[in-house]
Amino acid sequence: MITTDSLRKILELEGQKGYTDKAVIGGLDKYLHKQAGQIRQGVNNRQLLAEFDELNLANSNYGSCDVDERKKWVIRLFDWLSKLEEVKQGTLTSPLSSRERNKVRVTVTSRPGKRSEGLNSPITIIKGITPRVATKFAKLDVRTMHDLLYFSPRRYVDYSQRKPISELKEGEEQTIVATIWQARIATFGNRQGTEAIVGDETGNIRVVWFNQPYLAKKFPTNVKVVISGTVSLFKGQKVFASPEWELLENKELIHTGRLVPLYPLTQGLYPRQVRKWTKEAIDGWAWRVSDFLPSEIKNRCQLLDLPEALAQIHYPDGHLIAGRAKERVAFDELFLLQLGV
Known about the structure:
By secondary structure, the chain is α+β, with helices and mostly antiparallel strands.
């Protein structure tokens, strides 16, 4: 169950990041929506329960607020947490029956979620990881959710450099955000694939995916798409050949427009699938990992909190913090080795 201390740390981190909604991968709303029911279970004071329902964490809309509104909302939540701590210390009492505590206003939080599963649960609790897929992960020594959290990328591809189409350079890894003008199944040699024409305010470019004709149906006309990859020349024209792509939706990018993790793979595991599953693992389980290092050591050595380090190892905000995340995990290994654990 989520603790007051862990929620406080997340809110403090959000403040340190300037209320940019980056304290938790996937955004604060997604995190709170999953945790609201558990938080409510720990409240046994009528007044605090009413105030909690007014905060409406299960249906929070933090991501759509401006910075000032976010700051005010976080302060309100901090005030409520302080009152909750006073109650737990015995300064306020107004007990509720278990029946009253279980009355959750929204159905989404009353459903059992994946967070009810432990870190030692098999990775098959993630949708899409079938027993057959799990045997392939087992070849990489990944069997449990804990293993998946520590399944570090071998390197990153830097797709963070966004450019207008007119400034794309041959042979460099670059990212564009463009509108899909058309997409169709095309024939390349003896095999079918997908060809799309996309454009921004500076021009158009051809994008092709070999041996993937099914992609044509995934690209509706006039929809925004993020394309990341290496630009090449074909008959004197610039073209993206089999790049990474994501439709531009209201969610965090994981395949494009950022430092994209590349994981060790075995036959039958594919990069996009593995990134999708590790992202779900980070969003749902990283914040359940117990951080055993005392705060004094972390402060003295300038180490990240362990949940944050795990999140940044998989989906870092930049090269610098990726390095710090790896340092934290390496420190833990040496620390435990010295303790003889």
